[in-house]
Recover the amino acids of this structure.
């Protein structure tokens, strides 16, 4: 398909998604429209129901909510004050309630959802709960909205699994309008490349824990999202380009007047698009196949997180849309990379925003015919309204102007006519090991093909120990298996990045093959991740033995175990003792999740 012009290819991929999804999408829309017809009229609640629902409200709010004329906005919040990205949400409910009153409505916190930080749990037992927390978040939000008290909902969430979980909930309650309200990134601290350099020095034993902690603390230093372009900031990009954010909302720093003005505006907009007005925009009708394709295009154009090869599939499925890895890979072939943000460059998200940010990016993608402009968004019809530069105007009102004609920093954000590379760098690999995903936007071209003997590990600590013992100073492909959703919840394997990076810097040709995840930190070392079927399911990755030759070819999109078919057929799949992964730090509570988990290429969730 890549021989066609980009807009023709994108249209063709969108059509095939529409056709593939038709039965499930039609059934979904029928459910949404049925729920819309019933409406969240509070008069259908018994007097006891309603009294419980507004018991703590002010007298005027009780009187308003006693009938159906005053709109009630449900707030789903991921606030906690331990995590930098979600701490700013502490003050949002008060701001939203006040803005709702100004608009003649009422707002209530409908429920809270958990928000765990992969940065805290990285390499720890708690990381094995991380991916499944997405589905818990969706269910927790569903519980909050199940009271049927609300005409619309606003969702306060930022990071890795939180936003995908909230999107799944918003689409499950697709009869309600949904506006996502971000908190924004922390201000720039220690440059991400310097942080990475210190991590590699620590891995080599050249600096100690004190120096490492100092570097990490200077990088992650205040309220807001981490500034590198991982899953959290990929989430914010997606919410804007898919139309869940108001234009320009994604990357405004916390605690600023513009940030608060955008929150107030989002509240009033949520109330304006309910069934009681003339702009009714239920989330399930708003998000369609075109919106999903726009999200994938944005992911490729910015070099976003590989986690979204899981999350976008699961999010789309919540709206009855069947997105596949092949769709994602084919779109990558025709979408150029327009942003260089760490780990795909030296800049952070604040530099990206200053260079023109989402407004310039969307403007350029529209110029290239790479986005569906004719989509619905929370701001209204069409994506052109998102090709803007957002500022604070008089009286603390949000002011939007057309996006700048040129990037303020072409080293960070490129025009469509001069992309950093002609494709998005996120590809599907296929071969006799099954299917996998690789992100090569930060991998040097001479590393796109690696053929080397396998060294097999069943735990990332085993690789760490082998590295420290000096056993890995050679060309090899590390196979880290039994890391899939059924095995141990599919943790991110960030602890592998520093040692593999060191070995590559020493001149060795190294790569990673795993049924686990690497996320937005997938960097300079070629990594075939999310291998499906996973080892726990008896996938071919369980047949690999030390010394077997592997070939990872990101050019042709193949991943092959170079062993004869007869010999492979004679091998028994390896087994791993996973007992240590079944208990501690709450892992015993997720046994049913591991049992029910779907394959990675189906989103790795527990929902059918």
């Amino acid at each position: 398909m890549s021989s066609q012009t980009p807009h023709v290819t994108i249209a063709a991929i969108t059509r095939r998604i529409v056709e593939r999804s038709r039965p499930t999408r039609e059934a979904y829309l029928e459910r949404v429209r049925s729920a819309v017809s019933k409406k969240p009229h509070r008069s259908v609640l018994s007097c006891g129901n309603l009294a419980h629902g507004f018991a703590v409200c002010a007298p005027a709010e009780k009187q308003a909510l006693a009938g159906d004329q005053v709109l009630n906005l449900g707030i789903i919040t991921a606030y906690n004050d331990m995590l930098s990205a979600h701490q700013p949400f502490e003050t949002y409910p008060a701001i939203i309630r006040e803005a709702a009153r100004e608009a003649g409505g009422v707002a209530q916190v409908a429920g809270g959802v958990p928000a765990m930080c992969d940065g805290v749990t990285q390499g720890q037992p708690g990381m094995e709960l991380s991916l499944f927390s997405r589905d818990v978040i969706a269910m927790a939000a569903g519980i909050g909205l199940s009271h049927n008290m609300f005409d619309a909902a606003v969702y306060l969430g930022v990071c890795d699994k939180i936003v995908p979980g909230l999107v799944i909930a918003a689409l499950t309650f697709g009869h309600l309008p949904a506006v996502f309200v971000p908190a924004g990134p922390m201000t720039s601290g220690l440059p991400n490349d310097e942080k990475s350099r210190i991590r590699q020095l620590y891995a080599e034993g050249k600096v100690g824990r004190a120096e490492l902690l100092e570097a990490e603390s200077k990088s992650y230093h205040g309220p807001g999202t981490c500034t590198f372009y991982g899953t959290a900031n990929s989430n914010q990009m997606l919410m804007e380009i898919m139309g869940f954010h108001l234009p320009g909302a994604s990357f405004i720093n916390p605690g600023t007047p513009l940030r608060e003005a955008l929150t107030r505006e989002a509240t009033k907009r949520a109330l304006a698009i309910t069934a009681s007005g003339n702009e009714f925009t239920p989330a399930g009708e708003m998000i369609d196949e075109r919106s999903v394709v726009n999200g994938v295009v944005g992911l490729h154009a910015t070099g976003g997180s590989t986690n979204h090869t899981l999350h976008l599939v699961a999010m789309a499925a919540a709206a009855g849309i069947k997105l596949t890895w092949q769709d994602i890979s084919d779109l990558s072939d025709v979408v150029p990379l327009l942003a260089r943000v760490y780990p795909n460059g030296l800049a952070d998200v604040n530099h990206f925003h200053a260079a023109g940010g989402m407004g310039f990016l969307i403007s350029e993608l529209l110029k290239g015919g790479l986005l569906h402009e004719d989509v619905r968004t929370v701001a209204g019809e069409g994506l052109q309204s998102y090709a803007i530069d957002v500022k604070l105007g008089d009286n603390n009102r949000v002011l939007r102007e057309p996006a700048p004609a040129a990037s303020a920093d072409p080293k960070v954000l490129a025009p469509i006519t001069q992309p950093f590379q002609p494709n998005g760098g996120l590809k599907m690999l296929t071969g006799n090991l099954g299917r996998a995903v690789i992100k090569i936007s930060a991998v040097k071209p001479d590393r796109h093909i690696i053929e080397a003997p396998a060294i097999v590990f069943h735990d990332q600590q085993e690789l760490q120990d082998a590295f420290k013992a000096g056993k890995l100073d050679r060309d090899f492909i590390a196979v880290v298996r039994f890391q899939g959703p059924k095995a141990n919840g599919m943790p991110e394997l960030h602890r592998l990045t520093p040692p593999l990076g060191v070995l590559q810097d020493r001149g060795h040709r190294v790569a990673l093959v795993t049924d686990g995840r690497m996320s937005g930190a997938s960097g300079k070392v070629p990594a075939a991740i999310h291998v499906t079927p996973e080892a726990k399911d008896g996938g071919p990755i369980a047949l690999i033995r030390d010394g077997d030759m592997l070939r990872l070819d990101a050019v042709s999109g193949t991943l092959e175990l170079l062993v004869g078919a007869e010999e492979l057929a004679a091998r028994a799949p390896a087994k791993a003792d996973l007992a240590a992964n079944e208990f501690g730090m709450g892992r015993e509570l997720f046994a049913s999740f591991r049992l029910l988990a779907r394959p990675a290429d189906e989103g790795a969730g527990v929902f059918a």
